[in-house]
Amino acid sequence: MTITVLDTAVGMSSVLSAEESRRHEMMREVLTPMAGMFRYFPGDIDLLAMHAMSFGFPFDRRLDETRGALDRLVEADAWGRIERALTDAVEIQVDAIPNLHVPDIKVLLVLGDLSDEYFMGPARGFSGNGSATGYIALTLWPTKENLGRLEAAAVHELNHNLRYAPGGIIWDPTSVVVGEQVVSEGLADAFARQLYGRSGYTPIGTPHLNDDTVFDKVVTGLDIAEMQNFTSWVHGDESARRFGAEPVGLPTGAGYAAGNRLVDAYLAAQGMSAAEALHIPSREIIDVALSLLR
């Protein structure tokens, strides 16, 4: 197993310093090592389009501010901290599940788009993706909050990677339901909290952790299938509107808050750590948790 945190500091610096006509192709080179992340997408994937869709920084505006943000990431040793956090987390996870398959993992850290109101507002300047085994992508603006929880954010995405690695839970797009993603977000947060305490909570979910109305509403959607519904039920209405889904009356991060409550109830009842529960089916977690919480 090898964890490779791509040296995007050099790549982004080169892009931001280049003539505008060269920036797109130079950024494509930065992103090329992550092409396998989109292996299940139909057709040819435009890596620059995926960068933009994931709130990646633009190449034609606010360049001075983006350069300053890059300097802050370098000063914070962001790349080194992420690599050390992932290495430590894998060791803890393998201690809990000795026969665990841990794939080689490539990690992409890029700056986000300061001018994107959704990204800097409801999303709090952060977007992570660990859903494709072998790849982790972190897009962020270096706010105090995001710099303070770099390790926790990376470990959260690692948990997704390992839950769906070969030998783990199978994510079947034809049958997967909202409850699986809700539980997976709760498990990933619980694992990050196992290592880093409260900073392991994904910030968009924390305002609703103790909101019974939000929890009860999310529970009504746990058996809904078809992945186009997941944004609404997990990320909330503002995200749904941003990505063209149907809002269902939930605040930002509602599914994260509900997932934490479900997972915490299950772990407490079973006397398990989050690491030990990596491959527990979501249906089991939901059934046990709801029997205790209702």
From TrEMBL:
Highest taxon in the source lineage: Bacteria
Pfam assignment, any one: DUF2268
InterPro entries per the UniProt record, alphabetical: DUF2268 (IPR018728)
Domain DUF2268: 100-287
Name of the featured protein: Peptidase
Organism in which the protein naturally occurs: Cryobacterium flavum
